[in-house]
Amino acid sequence: MTVSPTSTVDMALPGLAPFFDSDQLSELLGRPVRADRLRHKPGTSAVARLREDDGGISWLATYAPPVAVKLEKVFARAVASGLELGHVVLPDHPGHRLVTGPIELDHRLYKPLARFRRAGMERLFTDRVVWVLNYNPQRRVVFEVVRGEERLVCKVGTAVPYADGQLLSQLAASGVPVLETVEPMGLPSSRQLQYFTWFGTGDLSTVEQGNAGAASYAAGVALALLHAQPPAFGTHRWRAPAGSLVDLVEENSLLSPELAGRLERLRAGLEPLLRRPGRAALMHGDFSADQVLVDGSDIRLTDLERCTYGAGASDLGSFAAVEILHGAADGSLAKGSEVLSLPRTAAMLDGYSAGPTGATDSEVLAWTIFHLLSRLSNSFRSCSPTWRHDMANHLELMEDILW
């Protein structure tokens, strides 16, 4: 079962269509809302972040009737905890419904959040005791904790992060400006939970363009230092790009069948460029301007949850790809020849080249294409009604860079 090539509707999951129409979704739920951060299993289920006009954040889900039994535990937990679940039957689709609930009842984050419940903090999000900074359904929630004058950031995920407190301390001791974990008294702890002291005034993506050059350069220097560190893991947690390319092409072809031929041609052209991935390094794993915290001229690298060992140029391409997509969201889509001249990317590459490591333009461009491909479905996951058009435009950009 695939998504229909002519609409946003999964024919076996009619509850998915309202995710892409905020007016219809708001009418069904009886309040102004919009969905994003979609996780879709064709023919089976769809779960997304639900954003309220008043700043509230919760989750939205729809399941095909044969698997809707998975929600039974969620309903039981809601009753036991006194938390409210929204429940809307879809008109004209017997057996199909939309369900909404607080982050506390996210069925994959429920266990990682258990320590807060045992500490008497079971209504963190419902009562807005904390401010949610980021929420990725079924994966992670990040929130601010304020205790007197102390501001902390807490990250709770379904997986144990690769970069634990010990590794972050080792990197900091080696001169890499990373944000280290702290262990605050009186707050729950576990391997799936990390605390950080609040740093700076925002991340590099939010810094005004005229002031971003120095911080971007510093980010490049910091990344070069990270790449110069010895391997940190007993085994290499990195998959060869050829296998990932095949998976990405298959996933995006299922999502948008009309692009399948072009995607396969892109894979065939890109794979040879990634066979020799360049210098191996201890990588950030998800590097972008969003992962660089800024405080004046000082910066810290953060969100190393995907820290791994592999091609250093991959981090550079990831940074460029995200800047391209941010530009596209603002209405300006860079041409292939302009990629390495994007303001933040250019300054970051200058800083990186000044460090102990380096990468060629061809390596960076190849990995930029790879990371654009890995994010090709972002518009779909953002529940944009123009996602098909956006995918086609972004694929055209990748083709322009490659050829």
Structural class: alpha+beta
Radius of gyration: 22 Å
Shape: globular
**How would a textbook summarize the main sheet?**
5 strands, antiparallel
How far from one another are the termini?
33 Å
Helix content: 25-40%
CATH superfamily of the largest domain: Aminoglycoside phosphotransferase (APH), C-terminal lobe
Number of domains: 3
Spatial ordering of strands, largest sheet: 1-2-3-5-4
Question: Residue ranges: pLDDT <50 for 5 or more in a row?
Answer: 1-6
Mean pLDDT: 90
Q: Helix-strand pattern, N to C?
A: HEEEHEEHEEEHEEEHHHEEEEHHHHH
* Strands, total number: 15
Number of separate helices: 12
Corresponding CATH architecture of the largest domain: Alpha-Beta Complex
Strand content: 15-25%
Description:
It contains 12 helices and 15 strands. It has 403 residues and is α+β, with helices and mostly antiparallel strands. It has 3 domains: 14-101, Phosphorylase Kinase, domain 1; 114-197; 202-402, Aminoglycoside phosphotransferase (APH), C-terminal lobe (Aminoglycoside 3'-phosphotransferase, Chain: A, domain 2, Alpha-Beta Complex). The strands form 4 sheets. A 5-stranded antiparallel sheet has the order 1-2-3-5-4, with helices on one face. The protein has a 5-stranded antiparallel sheet with strand order 6-7-8-10-9. Helix 7 (260-274) packs parallel to helix 12 (387-402) and helix 8 (312-329) packs antiparallel against helix 9. The chain is globular. Residues 1-6 have low confidence and may be disordered.
